[in-house]
Each structure stands twice: as structure tokens, then as C-alpha cells.
Amino acid sequence: MPMTGNRFTLSSIAFGVSFGITLGLSQGSLLGAIGSGSLTFLSSQIGCIIASRQPTDSDDEELGWRIEEIRGHIRSLQNRRADAYNDLTQLSQERDRVSATLRALQGQMHQLQSRNNLSGNLSGNPSSTLSTNLSQPVSPSWNLSKPSTRRTMAEIQSSEALIKNSEAQITSLEREEADLTRSLSATLSTQQWAEAQLINTTTELNQIMAQVAEQKANKTQILNEITQLETDRKSIKKELETLQAEVQSLDLYRQELTRLAKSAEPVQDQVTAGTASLQTAITQLQDQISSLHGELETLETQILDRRTQKNSLDLELVTLRTQKENIEAINLVSLDPWQDAVVVNNKANGRSPNGKSNGSSNSPSDSTAPAELDFSQEPNLDATWVKFATLLPDYEVQALTAIARHASPAQRLKQIAEANLTMPELLIDSINERALEVVGDILLEPSAQPGVPIIAQEYEGAIQAILRTYDRTLKAQSEA
Fold it and tell me: Which ranges of 349-423 does DSSP label H, i.e. alpha helix?
């Protein structure tokens, strides 16, 4: 935590110094000073982080010296263990030699003891009988059949001296064996201590090597972080340069605005002076707009009246045509009674006796539609479209043909509308109303050319099928 506080304090001081210097040099450019101070603050933070995480050269030298010292200690322990092993081998050989010598001396002593025992059995205890034999007179043995078993004093004394020497040698050898055993135990203890020290030193070396590997990994990570920070610093530097360029452009723009504001002050005075006259003109325009709205409402009322009159005239015209057709039918019946069935059939199909459509819509003036349509060759045509086709008057079929098959159907639509005492707009609205009533959607949509509709893209196939059916039926009637 203190390291973090010191780092933040140092970065804050660097930010303040950079901000003050940049603000003084840029003559009041606050944004540029803030950008420069921010870059200095970030750079100082990066430097502090790198300095706090990167190991120093003295630490690396101390660590290397410690590793070399431990390696030297390990080598000395290995040498001491080899020396101890050699000493142990020599002591073992010496012990074996002393043991062999001791066994040889013991064998000799046993031989001497056996000889003394043998002589004792013959002449008694050599040490006790010697004085007895010296104090008592020796009576000569008159048994000539047995060998003489008497020993001279010199032989007895030499045997005793030899036994004492052997015992002294055995004692000294036992002392040497005890010393060798103690030396061997000390050597074994030294060897065990050396092995324990070697194990501890090896463990410590492994720990140090692990620390070294960890420090290397940390160093690699720090280098990667330094690389990333350097990349970030470059990107921030580029952004700072961009911001400085923008700040300079904004300063120029601000200066230009200041200059324009100073130059616009006379214009502002003129605008303020002309505001009253403009307000008066606006009031006059509003009055004119109000009067124009009144005239527009009057014109709309007149248009509605004209449309009402037209509709009433259309109804009267339809009624008159119906009466005319009825009269013609009566006249035809009176002239030729054999045509009665044809007239009745045509009326059932909504058509006049001359083959033209009969109904609420006007008949076309230049073409006659078939009395009965055969949709057997259009198996993909839905029943809804079949019903829509049977409800279409001839002039609406002509209008659909012009829209579907002519690149510029405006003139043709106008001719069809004039022939049926209507307008192209009303003709299009009538077709859309039938489609909306039967199909459930409008059929004709407005196009980029004013007053010229187009067939909706999803219904083009059905319309082309209906028109092909009309063409086939008309062709069959003409051939018949």
C-alpha cells in the first residue's frame, strides 16, 4: 500500500508539472495540456510498475553468489563424504587385519595354554608346583619305563613370559579394536551428517532453482507487460497527436468564430433593426394563408359536390343503359324467338346480348370478353383468383392487360376510362376494391411514374394466368 501511494504521488506530481508546462507553452490550450498531463501520468505509472517489478542487478549478483556458494558447499560435502568413505574402508581393512592377528595370537595362546595344561597334568600347576618343587627335594624316579616329564625352570619361565606377552598383545589389540570401533562409529556419524547436509543443501538448491525459474517467469511476464505497455503508449501517443491536431483545428475554428462574431455584430444590428418589418410581413403572410385556407375549403366543397353529381349521373347512366339493354332484348325476342336462350345465358353471366358485360360497371367500347372462361389449363391458379376473374368486367380486364403488357400504359388506361365514362384513378380503385373484397389485398400499387400503377410482385403470376385464360377463350371463340 505505501508503494502504491508513493507511485500515485509521483504520478500526480508529474501530471501537474506536465500540465503546467504544456499550458504555459500552448498559451491557454486547456485540452492539449490535459492530454499531455494524462500521457505523463500514464508514463510515470508504467515506469513505477516496471521499476517495482523488475529485479535489480545487485539482487541477481547476490543470487548468483549464493548459488555458487551452495554449489561449492555441496562439492566440499561430496569430497568429505568420499574421504570418510575411504577412511571407513581403511579402518575396516585395519580392523580385519587386527582381528586376524588377534585370532592368530589367541590360537597361539590356546596352544600354550594347552601345553601348560598338559605339563600341569604331568607335574601339577606350574606356578604353584614350581615353589613346591623348589622347597621339597626332588626324589628321583626309579621307573625307567616312563619318560621323564619334568621341565626345567627356564622353560617354565619362558612359557609364562610368552603367555604374559600374548596377554599384553591381546589387551593392546583389544584396545586398538575398541579405538577402531569408536573411530568407525565417528566416521559413520560424520558420513550420516554429511549425507544429511548434502540432502538439505540439495533441497535448498532445488528451492533456489525454483525461485530462479519463478523469477525468470516473472521477468518474462514483466517483459510482455512492458511490450504491451509500450504498444499502448504508442497508441496513446498517436491518439494524443490526433487530439492535438483536433485541438489545433478547434482553436483555429474558435478564432474564426470569434472573428466572424465580431464581423457579424453590424449584421446583427441590421437584423435586429429589420426584425420589426419581417414580423409585419409574417403577419401579412399569415393573413394571406388564412384566406387561402378558406378558398381551399370552398374548392374542396365544390369538388365534393361535383363528385356527388358525377356519381348520381353515373347511376342514372347505368339505369338508362340497363333500360336500353332491356328494350333491345325485348326487341330481339320479338324479332327472333330463337335467341331467347342466348339472351338469358348472357344475362346470367352478367353480359349484354351483344356479348358485352352487363352490371354495375360500364362495358368496354373496343373489345368483347368471353362469355365463359376455361381455367383447366391453369392448374396452379387458386379458386380465389378464379372467382376474382369471373367478377371482372371487360374494361377492367383490358386495364389489367394494358398494365401487365405495356411499358407505358398511361395512354391506354386513359382511353379505356374515357370509353367507359370514368377516370383512370377510379378504374384502378375499382380493381383494387374487387381484389380487396375477394383476395383480401390490393392488386395494383403506385409506381415511380405518376398515375401509372404496377401489379404487386407476389400477384403477377396469377394475373398473367388470368390474362392467358382470357386470350385462349377469345381465340377459341374467334375460331368458332
Answer: 383-391, 394-405, 410-419
